[in-house]
Amino acid sequence: MPRSTSSSSSKGGPVTLAMVARRAGVSPQTVSNALNSPDLLRPETLERVRHAIDVMGYRPSRAAQTLRTRSSKLIGYGVQPTPAGLATPVMDRFLHALSQAADEAGYRILLFACPPGGPTLDGYEELLGQHEVDGFVLSGTARQDPRQAWLAQRGVPFVGFGRMWSGRQIGDWVDVDGASGTDAAVEHLVALGHRRIAFLGWPRGSGVGDDRAEGWQRAMRRHGLPTRGRRAQSVDDIDSARSAIKPMLDAGVTAVVAASDMLALGCYHALRERESAPGRDVSVIGFDDSPTAAILSPTLSTIAQPMEAVGRECVRLLLARMADASAPPERVLLEPFLVVRDSTPAVHPGPSGPTTSTADR
């Protein structure tokens, strides 16, 4: 019979399933059914057993459960290395949300290190060879990512946080609609009176970055605003972003939509070098709603990702895939939302409204 790994009897030893059965006045098999197949019991019996479990603090042994169900109740998640000096608050929030959602479903997240240089199969083969996980959550999905096809060919359940960014979609995924976020950012700026709006993004070829750039471009075109010459590119680094946005500022843009809060911070630095003020002279909107955004001066308007919902949906889709491997793939695209702060004040119009030129119309 499975024994407790964390609870103790009044005599100091572990609380066993048999002890719970005696307390509830039922057989050990009835206690097992209450834990694993509660629908087999009458409501009054189930309530009596659950009361005994709660009073005695009984916790089933994970090892015993694994032997019985052939399920480890573990979900594998490969942790990508973070470049020196680069914070990843969004992924930290995702991992917390994922762990909480898994815990509520009776699972635990098993972390393992992934090598630098992009997604590989290292770690995944080893864990599967040891039969230590029931499925995987993938992040950092990218073009030419080998993991999805490899896992699918072996019938291993998985869900991706992020799209495949290639023509062939494999498996279930949950993602945040970055294009919708930057579209909303442009809408907000246009409503404030801005017409010369630049985009500061990552180099082309990044699925996430291109998606966010597409939202900016889509909204600009919808309002008949020019985009040529108003897209700057930078790696996710403050100094690089500062250099990349300078030509846009020289050209007289009045607002900048950035693909990340890190890039927006580079824009802040570039403005201060010009003795200009973010918000007062040029409006700035970031993306990710990192902790830094709320403590900058001025505080940074930004697009927030619903990470708690992402974590819940990843666990839901993975458990559904474990239950039915033949079900059609499910893809969930979640809406981000704009957090308005001091970096996007209303534009003060002149006698004829916000300043524009013929080229800006």
From TrEMBL:
One of its GO terms (molecular function) is DNA binding. It holds the Pfam family Peripla_BP_3. Gene3D superfamilies: 3.40.50.2300, lambda repressor-like DNA-binding domains. SUPFAM superfamilies: lambda repressor-like DNA-binding domains, Periplasmic binding protein-like I. Keywords: DNA-binding, Transcription, Transcription regulation. PANTHER family: HTH-TYPE TRANSCRIPTIONAL REGULATOR GALS, LACI-RELATED TRANSCRIPTIONAL REPRESSOR. Signal peptide: none annotated. This is LacI family DNA-binding transcriptional regulator. It comes from the Bacteria. Residues 15-69 form the HTH lacI-type domain. InterPro entries: HTH_LacI, LacI/GalR-like_sensor, Lambda_DNA-bd_dom_sf, Peripla_BP_I.
